[in-house]
């Protein structure tokens, strides 16, 4: 993909027309004006309604006051015709819907209404004309204002206003659109067209984008054109770097692999050197005992020879010295047997670690041999290794890789698991499990599950995913190389064709689970050498 492809626009020209800035601006502006217009019309309608309703009440009250005395005389004289004529006179008003009179003695005149409409009617009290000073009530007049008339008046008034607002908004939209397109829309379209130029970064146009324009859009266009020119120069430099970048990366990668292999080999040799020192120290005890026993035998034989030469040797002395020589010989035999066992274990482990050959071996036996070579180191600490080996399976694989795996796991637990603690337990377990398909093995029916568990400080969640990364360690500057777990992962996955996983909880310990096939598929020699180192 070229650089210009990455600068292509996300919209086609037709799509850009539907989402143009001027269209959006007009829609937002008109929408805002429409909302404000609706609010204005609502307020205006409420004010107009209140004013019209108040005016209707004033007109009605004025007419009623003019007919109040005739109403009182008609009711007082029980003149139904005059009362009904007065009621029809009030109902003839445009704003009056219905009028009726209620009296306590002569009944009602007109057609009264009930329910909520009754509570909306205006009520006036009629007094006796003969005792007007005493305010003797002879009836009550109810006048119901005609709301439909007021509504028609309001609709008519507000309708003209709404029509005027709509015309105003349309004219405003036309004017705003014209001004916006002139000042902003067309310049932005020019900038968009410039950005959509094919191969803009590879071959930018030389002509100035907006000559003579010094406002914000002119500054934006000038800055954009300068940025494109800088990108053009940067692209030329990148293309120059790309011509030899692959060779440089390949060379650096090869150097890094060599450094990593050297570090891994140095780590392995250091571990083997520590193993030699430990075994040498362990051999001192049986060899020293054997030497002391040999000196005892020499002293006994010298004493017998002296007694024999002087003819003072008795049967009791002979039997005593012979018994002492026999006991000493037994001691020599046991101590040299122990030395032979240590040397044998060390030789087998050392040969396996340096060998690339696959052979058949008992898995649990290799684990025990490896721990035997680690005993000198373990004796110097308060850590204990508990074994629960239940595999007892003869497998065909690389014993050196298994031995190195066990050593790295135990040493890693000793260095990291019990930091800040004076003692701890490392538990090694092995079991045989049925083979599951797609394990990457050929013809296997079983696999070995080997676990190394400690009960130490645990690994934080953020570090769990980095445990098997090369050079990752929390002990830099304190003896940690960061290669122990990386070597374990490499040995398990590539040399032994198995899998390794880790689970941990801070404060509760860590457990490594290794699953190994009973028979490893043989690969080419160079691959095997790289894995076992």
From TrEMBL:
Query: Which EC numbers does the record give?
Result: 2.7.13.3
Gene Ontology molecular function, alphabetical = phosphorelay sensor kinase activity
Its encoding gene is what?
Answer: virA
Which SMART domains does the UniProt record give? HATPase_c, HisKA
**Membrane-spanning residues:** 25-45, 157-180
Say if the entry is tagged with keyword Phosphoprotein: yes
Origin species, per record, is Roseibium album
Reaction(s) catalysed (UniProt annotation): ATP + protein L-histidine = ADP + protein N-phospho-L-histidine
Q: Which UniProt keywords apply?
A: Coiled coil, Membrane, Phosphoprotein, Transferase, Transmembrane, Transmembrane helix
List the SUPFAM superfamilies. ATPase domain of HSP90 chaperone/DNA topoisomerase II/histidine kinase, Homodimeric domain of signal transducing histidine kinase
Q: State what protein this is by name.
A: histidine kinase
Spell out the Pfam families in the cross-references. Answer: HATPase_c, HisKA
Gene3D superfamilies listed in its UniProt record: 1.10.287.130, 6.10.340.10, Histidine kinase-like ATPase, C-terminal domain
Q: Which segments constitute the Histidine kinase domain?
A: 278-520
Coiled-coil ranges per the record? 308-335
Query: Superkingdom of the source?
Result: Bacteria
Q: Please name the top-level EC class of this enzyme.
A: transferase
Q: Does the keyword tRNA processing apply?
A: no
């Amino acid at each position: 993909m070229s650089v210009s492809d990455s600068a292509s626009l996300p919209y086609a020209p037709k799509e850009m027309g539907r989402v143009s800035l001027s269209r959006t601006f007009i829609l937002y502006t008109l929408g805002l004006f429409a909302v404000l217009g609706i609010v204005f019309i609502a307020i205006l309608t409420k004010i107009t309604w209140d004013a019209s309703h108040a005016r209707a009440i004033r007109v009605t009250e004025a007419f009623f006051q003019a007919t109040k005395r005739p109403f009182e005389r008609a009711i007082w004289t029980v003149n139904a015709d005059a009362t009904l004529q007065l009621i029809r006179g009030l109902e003839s008003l445009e704003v009056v819907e219905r009028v009726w009179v209620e009296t306590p003695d002569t009944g009602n005149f007109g057609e009264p209404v009930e329910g909520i409409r009754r509570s909306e009617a205006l009520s006036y009290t009629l007094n006796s004309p003969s005792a007007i000073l005493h305010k003797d009530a002879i009836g009550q007049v109810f006048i119901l204002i005609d709301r439909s008339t007021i509504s028609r008046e309001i609709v008519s008034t507000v309708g003209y206003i709404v029509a005027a607002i709509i015309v105003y908004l349309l004219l405003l939209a036309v004017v705003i659109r014209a001004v916006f397109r002139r000042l902003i829309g067309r310049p932005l379209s020019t900038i968009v067209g410039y950005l959509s130029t094919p191969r803009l970064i590879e071959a930018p146009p030389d002509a100035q984008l907006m000559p003579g324009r010094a406002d914000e859009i002119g500054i934006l266009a000038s800055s954009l054109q300068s940025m494109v020119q800088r990108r053009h120069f940067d692209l030329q430099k990148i293309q120059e770097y790309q011509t030899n970048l692959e060779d440089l990366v390949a060379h650096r990668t090869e150097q890094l692999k060599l450094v990593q292999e050297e570090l891994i080999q140095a780590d392995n040799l250091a571990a083997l050197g520590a193993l030699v020192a430990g075994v040498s120290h362990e051999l001192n005890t049986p060899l020293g005992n054997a030497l002391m026993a040999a000196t005892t035998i020499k002293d006994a034989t010298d004493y017998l020879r002296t007694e024999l030469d002087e003819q003072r040797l008795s049967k009791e002395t002979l039997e005593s010295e012979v018994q002492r020589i026999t006991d000493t010989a037994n001691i020599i035999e046991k101590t040299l047997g122990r030395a032979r066992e240590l040397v044998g274990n060390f030789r087998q482990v050392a040969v396996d670690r340096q060998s690339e050959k696959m052979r058949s071996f008992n898995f649990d036996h290799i684990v025990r041999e490896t721990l035997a070579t680690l005993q000198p180191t373990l004796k110097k600490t308060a850590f204990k290794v508990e074994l629960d080996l239940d595999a007892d399976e003869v497998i065909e694989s690389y014993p050196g890789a298994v031995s190195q795996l066990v050593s790295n796991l135990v040493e890693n637990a000793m260095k990291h698991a019990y930091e800040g603690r004076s003692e701890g337990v490392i538990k090694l377990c092995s079991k045989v499990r049925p083979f599951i398909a797609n394990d990457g093995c050929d013809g296997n029916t079983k696999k070995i599950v080997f676990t190394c568990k400690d009960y130490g400080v645990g690994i934080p969640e953020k570090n769990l995913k980095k445990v098997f990364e090369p050079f990752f360690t929390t002990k830099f500057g304190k003896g940690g190389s960061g290669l122990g777990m990386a070597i374990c992962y490499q040995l398990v996955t590539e040399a032994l064709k198995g899998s390794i996983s880790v689970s941990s909880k801070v404060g509760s310990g860590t457990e490594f689970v290794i699953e190994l096939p009973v028979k490893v598929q043989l690969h080419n020699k160079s691959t095997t050498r790289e894995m076992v180192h």
